Amino acid sequence: MPSSSPTAPARSARYSHTAIALHWLLAAALMALFALGLYMADLPFSPQRLKLYNWHKWAGVAILTLSLLRLLWRLTHRPPALPATMVQAMPAWQKWAHHGTHHLLYALFFAVPLIGWAYSSAAGFPIVFLGLVQLPDFVPASDALAEALKPWHQISAYALAALAGLHVAAAFKHQWIDRDGLLTRMWPGRR
Question: Tens digit of pLDDT for each residue in 135-181?
């Protein structure tokens, strides 16, 4: 029987292939969309800017759908428990931060695209997914509402980026400082 070392959690401690794929697909999509949002925000009005805004909205709808799939998977497939040695070594504030960060990330996976959709609807710009399917307006057109929602889309996107950065920093801390193998639970590859 193979022994498990602190840097290699047991098989049962790893997430499923589906959970891992959804995690990394969503991570890559969020990073790309955040970068696109930063890039396009300061572009002068042009056909290129309009095209990028449409892509941004399409990607937001795709991320919303992917987030829903990920949440459904998480609700129907219990994640592996943290190894007992890891739980015992974590101070209470780290346990709180671990759970709190994950809950806030899931909330923002939905909040950011939904606020963006509401902003687009309020501004009078419908979302036509992939240029083929017009989605219903999330809220009625209203200049005042659009002005109120616009900063919240940006604030929530920055909050999501900051929490994702914290999540990554914590994973690296566990991998390289604590050397407890936490990162291998979600790393793609062979089991």
Answer: 999 899 999 999 999 999 999 999 999 999 999 999 898 888 888 87
DSSP 181: -
Number of domains in the chain: 1
Q: Which CATH number characterizes residue 73's domain?
A: 1.20.950.20
CA 177 to each of CA 87, 92, 172, 180: distance values in angstroms, whole numbers, following the listed order: 16, 18, 8, 8
Range of the domain at 149: 11-185
Cβ neighbours for 190, distance < 8 A, ≥ 6 positions apart: none
Report pTM. Answer: 0.85
Choose among 110, 121, 112, 126: nearest CA to 143.
121
In a domain, 16, yes or no: yes
The region, left, alpha or beta by phi > 0 then psi within -120 to 50, assigned to residue 86 is: alpha
